[in-house]
Specification:
By secondary structure, this protein is α/β, with parallel strands linked by helices. Helices cover 59% and strands 10% of the residues. It has helices at 4-42, 46-70, 75-89, 108-128, 130-142, 148-172, 175-197, 206-209, 218-245, 250-267, 273-295, 301-325, 333-358, 364-375, 383-390, 392-415, 426-440, 444-468, 522-528, 530-534, 567-575, 581-585, 596-602, 628-637, 656-666, 696-705, and strands at 473-476, 479-486, 489-494, 497-503, 539-543, 559-564, 590-593, 608-613, 638-647, 669-675, 687-693, 710-711. Helix 1 packs antiparallel against helix 4 (108-128), helix 3 runs antiparallel to helix 7 and helix 6 (148-172) runs antiparallel to helix 10.
Length: 736
């Protein structure tokens, strides 16, 4: 006969698990949803996501602080207060953006957090307190149940919410439908909280909730904070790398955060085998992959992406496992989670606010990798290695051998010939690092020295050299820009994407449009046809300034207008003298600083004859510039015979169907010119341009000027992107 007590315990546990899963699922489903809503207003910069994450971490900290304070009153009153907070948060349903336009002169670093906080702050605050509160209630209701296992379930729900958004919710539902779906889930959560209330012992006093175990020492609390800070900051640093070099959209934003949350699920799981195994091999992973990431393999960005995500996941599992090992008794879990949230918020502040202001490169990345190596638990891999470091005489010899090996490897890297093992002997260096790294795992001081040298010789020193070189590097809210000189050319890079190349030393060559903008390219051919189409006083607009390359197509009587979101790019192209396209060809350009879509919507209708859309967010056009609403804005600013040129060259996405669908929906005629030079040189790069116009005669004239313009054919079944709906899943170039 079944034990009724056991059945009641299972039912109690089921109620609390479902409640905590639902709350966490909603909490992390709303993050990419609101960021997606904000894209048309905030622009597609990768830093928008980091700003959003900082808001979420701050609200999470507030929710955990509230849960910690609430845990001091009797359980029944806790439930009543929390239900009241949830009902107050319901006033912000359905989810949407609370404010209408960005105030002039306000930096995005301040405006983005304010917008997101005003839009979902109360809702996020109410739901974020769910995990620690429900765990505390479970420990009271079950008396001997382990509440920390519920935290693993909580993060599993969070991971599920993140993954569900790009794979299921975004492709199937418009934003308005997503908002109502989330609102329904929020109502369900309130009902589940009420169900949990019935599981609490009736008439329980505040003494039931009062902690009785020994409180954590200050040193232990600081250790918790450090263990939470490093993976949180590393997650944001990894997000910056990914969204800079692929595309700024939730599908990629959620990858680092999803793995970060999944690491909690593994670290706090009742079954310890996986967590212990990954923690044991984490030091080697950090050592090897940390060096690879700092060195970078720009030729294989997807391999780089995989390595970056693996590094983040392994470090997060190891550090969160250590946090689990240092957890307090269940009666003090709210304080434990408060310290964890505080550390997470500090990591967000460091990576999202401090680093972009203090550093001119992503120095936060190697700093956090090094900090992870210092904090990660370490054990000697074999007994023989352990004896090497525990015997005083052998330990001195081991340290001497490690130092000598590091000096040798550094010498080979910086001074060795480049004809063996790859450039600068890096292949040999990598093998040497792996060997002494394996021997040093468990000996923390030796391991720290090896990790520091690895980060320096595989790219850290080169980064410092560029930082010391006057004007070589600039960092802004929108990314890191690097200027490189060599072989008679000067190059501007944003991440791993070239934003412009100019020849130096020759007045004639300095005026030559290069790379994607060479005369044989689509934009080059359109510029040559400009006089014939619109006469000598044509009005030209360009979205995305870069180095100002396109300015050298300007003619004296023409009127040109640039739209550029980043003031740092304007300074590089116009003010520093490092690039002279504007100085030589268009000395007094009209430059509108701000998000191009917002600026274009504010411009006078029919004020342009040609508009070139070249707004790279590293390797992709920000998706909010590719919707039907955005194309309607382009149509408004162009005269009826106007020409729209869209640059869609991309390593990862096939953007042709997006433009074709937008053209079909907006009544545009479209043609494409894909230019492939015989060999890739600074003079010309492969490029893909699409021309759109609402005037058949304009398209005929363009095609007659160059027969390489061919009609654009929409992809069957592909729906035009809108501000309310978009997905990149059908566009991914999987073979890259």
């Amino acid at each position: 006969m079944a034990d009724p007590t056991e059945g009641a315990a299972r039912a109690c546990r089921f109620t609390f698990v479902v409640t905590i899963l639902t709350g966490s699922f909603l909490l992390f489903l709303v993050q990419p949803m609101v960021a997606r809503m904000a894209l048309p207003r905030l622009g597609g910069a990768p830093a928008v996501w980091n700003s959003a994450m900082l808001v979420y971490q701050t609200l999470l900290l507030g929710g955990y602080a509230y849960a910690h304070a609430l845990a001091r009153v009797r359980p029944g009153l806790q439930v009543l207060i929390h239900i009241a907070v949830l009902l107050v948060g319901a006033a912000w349903l359905p989810i949407g953006l609370a404010l209408t336009g960005s105030p002039a002169g306000v930096t995005p670093a301040l405006w983005v957090p304010w917008l997101l906080g005003a839009s979902i702050g109360p809702l996020f605050f109410a739901v974020s307190a769910q995990a620690p509160l429900v765990q505390r209630w479970f420990s009271i209701a079950s008396r001997d149940g382990d509440p920390y296992a519920l935290y693993a379930a909580s993060n599993l729900g969070s991971f599920g919410g993140l993954i569900a958004y790009p794979l299921v919710v975004e492709p199937l539902l418009a934003l308005r439908q997503q908002s109502w779906l989330w609102s329904g889930g929020y109502v369900l959560l309130i009902l589940l909280v009420i169900a949990c209330a019935f599981r609490l012992p009736r008439g329980a006093s505040a003494a039931v909730a009062r902690p009785t175990s020994v409180p954590a020492t200050r040193r232990r609390v600081l250790h918790w904070i450090a263990l939470a800070l490093v993976p949180s900051g590393l997650m944001l640093a990894t997000s910056t790398y990914i969204t800079t070099d692929i595309v700024a959209m939730p599908l990629l934003w959620v990858l680092p955060l999803g793995l970060y949350l999944l690491s909690f699920t593994i670290a706090f799981a009742a079954n310890r085998e996986i967590a212990d195994l990954l923690t044991r091999i984490a030091p080697i992973t950090i050592l090897m992959f940390g060096g690879v990431m700092i060195g970078g393999f720009n030729e294989s960005p997807l391999i780089n992406l995989t390595i970056a995500l693996t590094l983040l996941f392994m470090a997060s599992v190891a550090l969160h496992t250590q946090m689990y090992r240092l957890r307090p008794e269940p009666d003090r879990l709210t304080g434990f989670y408060l310290a964890m949230a505080f550390g997470g918020a500090l990591g967000g502040v460091f990576a999202g606010l401090v680093a972009p202001v203090v550093f001119d490169w992503t120095y936060e990345y190697p700093i956090l990798i090094f900090a992870a190596g210092l904090l990660v638990p370490q054990v000697f891999l074999t007994h023989r290695i352990r004896s090497l470091w525990t015997t005083p005489a052998k330990r001195r010899l081991a340290y001497a051998g490690v130092v000598a090996m590091l000096v040798l490897l550094a010498t080979l890297t910086f001074r060795g010939p480049a004809d063996l093992f790859g450039e600068g002997h890096q292949g040999l260096t990598f093998i040497g690092i792996a060997l002494i790294g394996v021997i040093s795992v468990g000996a923390r001081l030796s391991y720290a020295m090896i990790l520091a040298v690895t980060l320096v010789i595989f790219g850290g020193w080169r980064a410092v050299e560029l930082s010391l070189e006057q004007g070589a590097r600039t960092r802004s809210y929108f990314g890191v820009y690097t200027i490189r000189d060599g072989r008679g050319v000067r190059e501007l890079d944003h991440g791993t994407t070239v934003h412009g190349i100019q020849f130096t030393g020759s007045p004639v060559l300095e005026r030559l449009p290069t790379t994607y903008y060479a005369p044989p390219s689509g934009i080059g051919r359109a510029m040559e046809a400009l006089d014939g189409l619109y006469g000598p006083t044509a009005r030209v607009g360009v979205v995305g300034l870069g180095t100002g390359t396109l300015a050298c197509y300007a003619r004296p009587a023409q009127r040109w207008r640039f739209y550029e979101i980043d003031p740092a790019v304007v300074r590089i192209a116009r003010d520093t003298g490092q690039f002279t396209y504007l100085k030589n060809c268009l000395p007094h350009p009209d430059i509108r600083i701000g998000d191009a879509r917002i600026s274009i919507e504010a411009d006078r209708p029919a004020s342009l004859d040609l508009l070139a859309l070249d707004a790279f967010s590293s390797d992709a056009i920000p998706m909010h510039l590719m919707t039907r609403e955005a194309f309607a804005g382009y149509a408004q600013v162009l005269q009826l015979r106007g020409l729209l040129l869209v640059h869609i060259s991309n390593r990862f996405l096939d953007l042709e169907p997006v433009v074709a669908a937008a053209a079909q929906a907006g009544g545009w005629r479209a043609a494409k010119l894909y230019y492939q030079p015989e060999q890739r040189t600074p003079v010309a790069s492969p490029s893909q341009w699409i021309a759109l116009t609402r005037d058949p005669a304009t398209m005929r004239a363009l095609s007659q000027a160059d027969a390489r313009w061919v009609p654009l054919t929409p992809r069957a079944g592909f729906v035009a992107w809108t501000d309310d709906y978009s997905t990149i899943l059908p566009l991914l170039k999987w073979r890259r």
